[in-house]
Records
---
Amino acid sequence: MPSAPIRVASLLRVAAVVAATSLAACAGAGTTPATVATQSTAPDRTTSESATGLPGESATGLPGESATGLPGESATGLPGESATGLPGANFACGGVPTPGSAQCTVAISLSSAPIANPAQPAQLIPGLHPADLQSAYGLPVVAAGGTVAVVDAYDDPLAEADLAVYRLAFGLPLCSSLNGCFRKLNETGAKGNYPASNSAWAEEIALDLEMVSAACPKCKIVLVEANSALLDDLGRSVDTAAAAGAQAVSNSYYSVEWSTETAEDVHYRHPGVAMTASSGDRGYATYPAASQYVTSVGGSSLRRAGSGWTEAAWQYSGHGCSAYVGRPAWQRGTICRTRSAVDVAAIADPQTGVASYSTQAGGWIVAGGTSVGAPLVAAAYVLSGSPQGPSYSYARPYAFRPIGAAGYQPITGLGSPQGVMGL
């Protein structure tokens, strides 16, 4: 994976300055717990489809599948998954969220121990690099960037410092508060008076900022930190992000569905602003991914195949038929009578994951989870120059590479973006 040489001295100076500034500002804060060919999809699958789905399918999905997932799944996920992680990976935010609250969706691979050295040579950093992601998804990174917002819970006092390490390691232009590229806001939109720090969510924040950087190196970034992981706080932070001028807002968190969840939709309905949400890593439909106003990003395993790339569905990706949200008119070809909770997909498998730098995680790590896809796709929306929403994508299925089979798939939706013409 070729990368630009690391400017070690500059990297360390920038990171040190930012880290010192960040720590001083939060003193006294508490701590809470190559080329891929674009394939056309098959015609819309409605000819022999009934109100419940295709022949052999039910209202909830494929034979043997239920609204909560696939055979053998439980409330915590698929066989082999626990509250704290997946086979070969650990969740930063362990456990299932309580009603009305959310959990982050980053999964950290156990196949590679953290590398503490921020000046590690790029060729020795494990995981997929920005150039890999740009190649796999055909991203026009030379395009002028707009503004992408990242919404997460709690404070990461080293967010800007970790971002500086990542961007300089891979030869990306500096994005800092000093040059106006990076802004950090609290839930109300102010600089300062940030919420309590939280190490798990800090790992999520680092990953999200880095994935925006990887997909759109010229984009400005706004980080909005919610007071807590309550959906009300996260929703108000989404409103703040939209008001801050973002063209797309990334939401890498999930909540278990509940009967009145659509009351939260007001926070995700901002005309002209694209909203992305991770589909979750528990194998069942979640919110806000199930909202009709967001583009829900499911997960894949991404691997090199000669000069190109190959993708397969990642079985732990959240998916399924929403228990409470009706099927939007624009969502065609799905197996659900209600909202199918995945629209598109991107890399999520931590075993084929991305390089990420997080001080809280111990340095350089390989990360996955559907946390990766939400900021990647949000940045791709901004690269399109005119961000739309999920209905636009369903009208242009040819702009996505089907994963596993032609047509809409429950785990990966329309497939992965091939360029930005479908966004």
---
Amino acid sequence: MDDMPKRSANLMRLSVDAIRKLEPRETDRWVWDVELPNFGIKVTPAGRKVFVYRGRVKGSHVAKRFTLGIFPVLTPDEARRRARRYAELLRDGMDPSAVDVRENAEGVPPREARTFNALWPIYWEKHAVEHNKPGTRTNNQMLWRVHVQPKFGDRIIDTVKHTEVSDWHSDIRKSGITASKPRGKIYAANRARGLLSKLFNYAVERGWVAKNLKNPCSDVRPYKERRRERHVDPAEVTRLLETIDAIWEERPDLWRGLALPKLWLWTGRRKCEWMRARWEWINWVQSSIAIPDGKGGQQTFPIPPQAIKLLRSLPSYHVSPWVFPGNKPGAPMVNPKRTFRKILEQAKVMNLRIHDLRHIFGSMAAANGTPFSVLQQMMGHATPQMTARYMQGIGTLAYDYTAKTAAALAELDALACLAER
């Protein structure tokens, strides 16, 4: 334990904000909690932050250091609760590390320890990190921290009832009711319910809950979500492109936030696919990009000539491994929302999201007569249902087909009337 300094070296209340501000040093940095003795966090030179607890088994003279978990996967409050449990085990003459080994060997902890708080770090490390995309992980962390953990964190998993979940689901929706949002937080309520349901199913998989016990979320009906439809006039697209060129001429330093909307519009790719793109993914001979880990898995998409020309002109070409390098060295761009808002304001285009540029591409492709199967491949959709929304077209395409159908039916009606005469 010589590598661990005295607790008086650095004391503070360990909170999320305080931990985020801890900067790494040349050697391991130790910070101790003023609220719970022997509970602290280690910050490695690489910036990794690990919660620890130090104590002695009753009757022993040798102190041991126990790793509790990694921040931010484990929050300070969750780590503090775990440290208190370790302290109880030590007072009872039990070594927490030995208990953990025995529980792992048996597959499940004692029933009283099978809480959502105990399951969350395991779910995160063994399931979410391996199977979820970065965006999904970020959203689920927020849902856990804001909605799930405060309500059900300390609960033993198999004690949660359907009525509790139903009331909680309703309360989340009602908490967001305002004059501009009369239906409340529908999406947040549904996503939180979905995460809780996944955690319960994962508990069943790990043997923490009996297989014949019904998921308390299964009979809680999700709220009906209204699909957002933003019909874009071709004139708006023209203004967007003209505005991008005008801003680029005045502010070439904004090239990343100006080039991205053009690529989204010209290729129909998802926001993060271009933001995290690497130059090595681009096949210049075939004019295509191979995205290794997109929403639909590994996929290859064509790049049109105007997009190829734009890519070759970017300052990052032959300079950075990233097509759009971020401000942080060695990382891609994080978010171009500020520049995108500037474009919309100058182009006088209202209520347009970044993702709507992908919808414009899909709708225009449908309006130009792209076969359904080809459009599904172009958009990278896993199911035909996702592609079907674009067949409504842009502008008056759906109206035209409706008018033609009605005209045909009217003609049949007219022929019937003549026959009756």
---
Amino acid sequence: MYALLDFKGLVMRDYHSRKSAELLQDSEGKFTITTAEKGIETFLTETWSEVIRLVGSPANVIAVLDGGYDYRLKLYPQYKAARRAKTVDPVLSAQLKICQEGIKAILEAIGVTFVGQKGVEGDDIIALLALKLEGRKAIFTLDSDLTALSRFADVKLGREWYEGNSDLVTLRKSVIGDTSDGYPGIRGVGEVAFGRMSSDLGTAYMVGLERLLAERKWAELEKLQGKHPVLDRCLADLNVWVTQFNLALLHPELANDLTWIRKVPETHVMQEAMNKYGLSDMAEGLTQWCTSYTLVTAANIKPVLEIILDLIPVTDFVAWDYETTDFVGNENFRLAAKGDYVDVLNSEITGMSIALGNNGQYSYYFSVGHADTANVDKKIVLGIIKLFEAYNLRMVGQNIGGFEGIVTKKQLGHCLKYRDWE
């Protein structure tokens, strides 16, 4: 199960939900500003605790960043105008920035994936992920717009799981407007009028209206004149209605150039971040997600294999890489490739790295051909590969089809059994 975090909104919520014991002075000299450190602590103890209980590992968490709202601003220049014009105390602004940067640094250090795209709102990226990711998803947000995705994912709206009907979320906003986003809705039509129209026409009819708007079937819409007085008001102002529908509608198609970031979960990086924000006493609880490194030799091969067997049931995939040496060293090949050539056919295995665990946090290096080392036999490497194949555990590498697969065949006499190696 994946957790999709509406990152900025969650950070803002947790920062403002608890006051720090010692408040900072605002620009007027009053002690009103909560420290960033308190916001970070609140996020970790409340939001993060709930997220990790649900999905089990940082590897299953995707934090979505807001990159702006170029599309909607072009469509409607007043979009979020009041929010943009609002003056924020510079001390508060600085603490919010530190809080957001701190939480991001800590989550990155334990292996949470971050994704964003310049000019694209987080809502649209979350919509894409909810539609495209396989398996169950849970969205954590404060934005009711995302309840439109409740057909495709569980939605935690604020502190409660959303259990309402998602069918008319977008249509409703297009008619009554959204004060937070700065568009007013259809003149003379409010919540009560929209509810009356929905009740009179029925949910199926209203869903059909939304579909006609989404599919831009203007002629079909205009044929509905006279069906209901509230609908007539909307149709009389069709251009406004269409604009506001597109403002309210989630646009996963905009998320077409995403930047993905997932860092190796490192203990020292996590501890440095926790120390920086005065949370060193909480670091121990996050260590379980950080990478441990084990050199495997003939001396410890037996207990390591026992541990690997225990890890297989909680591992979704194995990260895999060979270390090799070119035992022929054909100088003509090297010159022809200007130094970048790798002679795959003459590459001899000197070691193998694998990473397992529910966060990929258990890393093992099997020494096969190193000097002054109690190397393991290459048969052990082959046995581990066959073990993963027997458990249908997918092995992921940078170039398995073009390198590791060939080296495995040449050096170990084994053809990998995966149809989809990478």
